[in-house]
């Protein structure tokens, strides 16, 4: 309960979290004529690496919104295929070039540039407000329904009253727990170590993809002047790896991907290596009266396929398609919120199931090997023998199942 003299604001929809899900939903609702307040606890979007991939399905959404050309003016890299070096054999894992344009490539762009871009689009609409440095600390309940959010900003507290609270506050969500919603854990046998290595654009291969060796897997994203690297480890094994020392880790990385050469020497301390504790979970129920969770707050995804941002945006598009009119006309019901879950639950489950299969059938066996001669996994062999099959992972990763299109009409600009 907030103290009785706490200042109050009112709006139609208050969104906790200015990540891909929250900002995209805030922008889409404001564009459709809804008054919306997005709260982001950090003062800016410039934070640790959290994934830089914008997938074909998001490019299609940007095209629906008439923003694609403008978006592609921002500095970015395009990826048309994902390559793999599987025990020394060069393979194409996914070929995006066959997907329908404009989404026939994947864009690598710093996430903060993407978020800044969407926030800028939102600000064009009179109903859009984004407050940076404002942290949601809990929900306000009245007669069993969620009626608003408690917020801390610059050392003061206030309450936002609204018809809908959205928890888009990521995997470490506050809103989900304060609303009493509990996720089911699906489990993941891996963690990931993220770090950057310098890249010599003139000399190094351009490949964005993965390298598999017995006992190790490394993903390298070409970011022009540097490699964004993801080293996959068995869950909970970071302590053991750290005990062996940073020098041993550098040797491992260099051994897995020889093309990185001397660049591994920039890794001098574990501070340069960030642990992503991989989680896969999902809410059995994404909503309560007056409240909805979307994105990672509703379902944390494995990094397999790099689809977390994509799914978060797809949730936002579906939620705005289904909720903009009821919110605008102040006739939102639980059925409207249930419809969002009905629309997005199945794509989430299918994607998580595919991630679990890759983790259990491919990654865990690779990590469990200790130098024994390794055979290229059967699915990879099939991908090479039957190039048409390369379109399937491209479609799953790039578009996913049940892709969303923007169905709302734009309101007047500010
Ligand atoms: C190291 C790493 C690498 C990743 N790589 C990829 C990748 O390559 N491709 C990919 O698709 N996905 C990747 N992901 C996953 C991806 O980041 C998420 O799936 C995606 O960002 C989810 O979007 P979201 O908006 O639901 O949540 P988030 O992006 O987590 O955004 C939530 C936002 O809410 C804010 N917030 C949290 N609590 C509060 C609060 N109480 N009040 C106000 N604001 C709050 C946070 O600061 C954050 O800005 C990666 C994640 C990590 C950690």
Structure description:
This protein has 414 residues and is α/β, with parallel strands linked by helices. The chain folds into two domains: 8-79 and 105-186 and 279-369, FAD/NAD(P)-binding domain, CATH 3.50.50; 190-234 and 236-276. It contains eleven helices and 22 strands. It has helices at 20-31, 56-64, 68-71, 111-122, 175-178, 238-243, 246-256, 308-328, 334-368, 378-385, 391-398, and strands at 8-10, 13-16, 36-40, 53-54, 77-79, 81-86, 89-95, 106-108, 128-132, 134-142, 145-153, 156-161, 164-167, 184-185, 190-198, 209-213, 216-222, 226-234, 274-276, 281-282, 287-288, 291-293. A seven-stranded mixed sheet has the order 7-6-16-17-18-15-19. A six-stranded mixed sheet has the order 9-3-2-13-22-21, covered by helices on one side. The chain has a four-stranded mixed sheet with strand order 1-12-11-10, with no helix packed on it. Strand 21 (287-288) and strand 22 (291-293) form a beta hairpin. Helix 8 (308-328) packs antiparallel against helix 9 (334-368). The longest helix is centred in the last third of the chain and has 35 residues, at 334-368. The structure holds flavin-adenine dinucleotide. The site of flavin-adenine dinucleotide has 34 residues, from helix 1, strand 3, strand 10 and helix 8.
Blueprint of the fold:
Elements lengths: L7 E3 L2 E4 L3 H12 L4 E5 L12 E2 L1 H9 L3 H4 L5 E3 L1 E6 L2 E7 L10 E3 L2 H12 L5 E5 L1 E9 L2 E9 L2 E6 L2 E4 L7 H4 L5 E2 L4 E9 L10 E5 L2 E7 L3 E9 L3 H6 L2 H11 L17 E3 L4 E2 L4 E2 L2 E3 L14 H21 L5 H35 L9 H8 L5 H8 L16
Parallel strand pairs: 1-12, 2-3, 2-13, 3-9, 6-16, 13-22
Antiparallel strand pairs: 4-8, 5-8, 6-7, 10-11, 11-12, 14-20, 15-18, 15-19, 16-17, 17-18, 21-22
Bound molecules: flavin-adenine dinucleotide.
């Amino acid at each position: 309960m907030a103290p009785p003299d706490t200042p109050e604001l009112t709006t139609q929809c208050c969104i906790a979290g200015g990540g891909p899900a929250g900002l995209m939903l805030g922008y889409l609702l404001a564009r459709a004529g809804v008054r919306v307040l997005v709260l982001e606890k950090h003062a800016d979007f410039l934070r640790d690496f959290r994934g830089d991939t914008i997938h074909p399905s998001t490019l299609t959404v940007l095209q629906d919104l008439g923003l694609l050309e403008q978006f592609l003016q921002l500095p970015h890299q395009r990826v048309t295929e994902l390559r793999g070096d599987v025990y020394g054999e060069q393979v194409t894992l996914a070929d995006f070039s066959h997907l329908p344009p404009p989404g026939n490539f994947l864009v690598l762009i710093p996430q903060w540039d993407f978020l800044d871009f969407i926030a800028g689009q939102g600000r064009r609409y009179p109903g859009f407000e984004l407050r940076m440095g404002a942290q949601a600390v809990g929900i306000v309940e009245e007669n069993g329904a969620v009626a608003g959010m408690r917020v801390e900003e610059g050392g003061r507290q206030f309450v936002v009253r609204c018809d809908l609270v959205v928890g888009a506050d990521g995997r470490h969500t506050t809103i989900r727990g304060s609303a009493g919603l509990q996720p089911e854990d699906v489990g993941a046998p891996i963690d990931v170590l993220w770090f950057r290595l310098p890249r010599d654009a003139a000399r190094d291969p351009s490949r964005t993809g993965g390298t598999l060796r017995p006992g190790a897997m490394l993903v390298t994203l070409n970011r022009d002047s540097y490699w964004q690297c993801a080293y996959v480890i068995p869950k909970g094994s970071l302590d053991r790896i750290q005990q062996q020392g940073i020098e041993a880790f550098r040797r491992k990385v260099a051994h897995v991907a020889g093309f990185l050469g001397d660049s591994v020497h920039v890794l001098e301390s574990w501070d340069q290596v960030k642990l992503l504790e991989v989680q896969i979970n999902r809410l059995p129920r994404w909503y309560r009266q007056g409240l909805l969770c979307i994105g990672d707050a509703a379902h944390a995804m494995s990094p397999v396929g790099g689809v977390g941002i994509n799914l978060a945006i797809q949730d936002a598009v579906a939620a705005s398609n289904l909720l903009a009119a009821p919110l605008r006309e102040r006739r939102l019901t639980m059925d409207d919120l249930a419809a969002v879950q009905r629309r997005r639950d199945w794509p989430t489950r299918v994607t998580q199931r595919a991630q679990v299969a890759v983790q259990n059938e491919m990654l865990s066996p690779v990590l469990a090997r200790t130098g024994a001669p390794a055979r290229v996994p059967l699915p990879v062999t099939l991908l090479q023998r039957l190039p048409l099959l390369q379109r399937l992972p491209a479609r799953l990763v790039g578009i996913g199942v049940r892709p969303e299109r923007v169905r709302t009409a734009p309101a007047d600009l500010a």
